[in-house]
Write a structure and sequence with these properties.
about 425 residues, mainly alpha, 2 domains, four-stranded mixed β-sheet, 6 strands
Length: about 425
Amino acid sequence: MNHLLLVTKREYIHRVRNKSFVIMTFLSPLLMIGMAILVGYLSFKNSDTERHINVLDESGLFVNELQEDKRYHYTFLTDVDLAQAKSLTEESELYGLLYIPQSDNLLDLSRKIEFYSESTPSISVIEKIESLIEKKVNLLKIEEEGLDADYLQSLRMDIKVRLESFQGKESSKLTSGLKLAFGGVAGYLLFMFIIIYGNMIMRSVIEEKSSRIIEVIVSSVSPMKLLLGKVFGTALAGITQFAIWVVLLLVLGSLATSFLGVDSTMDMSSAESLAGVDQIAEMMQTGITEILELPLLNLFIMFLLFFIGGYLLYASLYAAIGAAVDNDADSQQFMMPILMPLMISVYVGFFTVMEEPHGFISQIFSYIPFTSPVVMLMRIPFGVPIWAQLISIVILFATFILILWFAAKIYRVGILVYGKKPSYKDLMKWIKY
């Protein structure tokens, strides 16, 4: 046990004192905040882009219907045919030309409207134009049938379905959104943690093997303890880095919000502004209430257990691969069997669990140990029984112990094998030793 603690301590200190580790620990949050600000700025600039569109309306039905706003400006052309309108728009380098032909009936008109542009227009532009035209055409169709459009509009009713379980517990669409967010974030964090720190363990083993330091270490420490020490030490270093990231992101995020997101000179005296503030406050209050109604203790405990179990399982495999090869290039042939279950779990989580958290596929993959850390984490917010969670946990840790035993067998032989690119057949032989 003392050897295990010493190896864990050595691996942890070696990681946290590494210059690249220190630099990336403090630089990554700055890069993340910078990327968020850049994406936000580019999105704002893109949403603020003005689009000037010429309109040739031969039907005369839409002269006052295409109302301008800050982003869309319409210029109606007169006394020109379609060819002249296209040439004029192209020479003026405007965004595009909307052509509405003359037609005998509305159905025929709806099928002949065209939009000309230099390149394919964005989906939002086409949806905006279609929405404006559909509104007018539908109104004309109602009038054509001799119906009162205002009366029909007054008959419209907004339906809001009240959500409640059979036990009488109320929920809302916001609750579903929060559950999706927690599950998605938890699964994604685990996926990234395994990829980043699993590769770190593998490269560490390869470096020590290449420098022959491993021969000295293994003379006094058993391969099992050496393997576990590397896994635990790297995990602690990763947790330390994640904790620092969380603190820095919270601090930098609050600073960025105060400097860029809040205008202290904003006029709050108008009724519209006050109504907006009240609405935001009500949404925040509802959000806090919904969060507090989630099984937070269960979510936190299971997040830790699945996070630790999933990491230990995959980290053991990464360490075994590092011991089996001499360089990163040789490791690539063994990476696909490790990455495939991870990719499948993310696919099942985001495309199956999100749609049907208690479906057959979701349940099956939440018990398979190579996919359960991601899939079960994404299912738990939707109400998985405790007994089902415990079964999945037991299967996961039992598989980890089994995989650790196999990995230690490969590790024991592989760390002393040089100059040979191992095959799967060689790995099977090493396990039998």
